[in-house]
Write a structure and sequence with these properties.
mainly alpha; Helix Hairpins; 2 domains; 4 strands
Length: 240
């Protein structure tokens, strides 16, 4: 077999080995991302409940201030009652008191309603807080596992990259450049075997002349259909 072709086959297999780790790295990242998504969702629920409770507390405070003012108004009206001398003034003061009492009733009802809502939301807030804490703890455990897993993968990839550098140095620059150009569009199928007289990159059948050249392996052969570099695997060669 042509020396350069043999080196290309080894380099291509090494590149395939490097890239084979990518799905594992992506799967590890997705595992973390799934838990993070749950944490974000739970945190959003927690933030929403906190914001709603604070908003309701603000409204309760506003109604409390309104009640204070209304009480002051009723106290003032009681004093005015002693100074009233006409029926018209009596009716006006009575109307004022009725309106003030209606406002006080509404304010008290709203305070009770809002406090009831907050009591329910506080329970939900505690549940949401526990959920965030549990998910965060789970995330930390998974993150530790994933970090260790990725470290092993990166170490293995690093060793393959060192080997790639060595293989690349041994190849003629022209041959390496030729391979890299094909790899840009063909990826890990830049160098493929020929089986049953077909290119295993595009699966198109080769004519007898091209097939014969691939078997001889005196030169680097490209598929006339797709342009990939082709070779015959040893077992296939023996069968043929």
């Amino acid at each position: 077999m042509n020396k350069h072709l043999n080196e290309l086959i080894e380099l291509a297999k090494n590149d395939q080995a490097i890239d084979s780790y990518n799905p594992q790295l992506e799967a590890a990242d997705k595992k973390l991302a799934r838990v993070q998504k749950k944490i974000d969702s739970a945190q959003n629920e927690l933030d929403s409940l906190t914001s709603s409770i604070e908003d309701n507390n603000g409204k309760v405070k506003s109604f409390d201030e309104q009640l204070t003012l209304l009480n002051e108004q009723l106290t003032l009206n009681a004093k005015k009652l002693k100074e009233i001398s006409t029926e018209k003034e009596m009716k006006a003061l009575s109307l004022e008191e009725d309106i003030a009492k209606e406002k006080m009733t509404f304010a008290n009802e709203e305070i009770e309603r809002l406090q009831g809502i907050n009591a329910t939301k506080t329970e939900l807030l505690e549940e949401a807080s526990e959920k965030v804490a549990t998910l965060t703890e789970n995330f930390n455990v998974i993150n530790k596992e994933v970090t260790a897993e990725k470290a092993i993968i990166e170490k293995s990839k690093g060793e393959l990259f060192v080997k790639r550098e060595e293989l690349s140095r041994n190849l003629e620059q022209k041959v390496l450049s030729f391979y890299e150009k094909i790899r840009i569009w063909a990826g890990n199928t830049a160098v493929v075997p020929v089986k049953k007289q077909a290119c295993y990159g595009c699966y198109m059948k080769l004519n007898d002349k091209t097939y014969s050249e691939v078997i001889k392996a005196d030169e680097i052969c490209n598929c006339p259909h797709c342009g990939r570099i082709m070779y015959i695997e040893p077992v296939t060669a023996e069968n043929d």
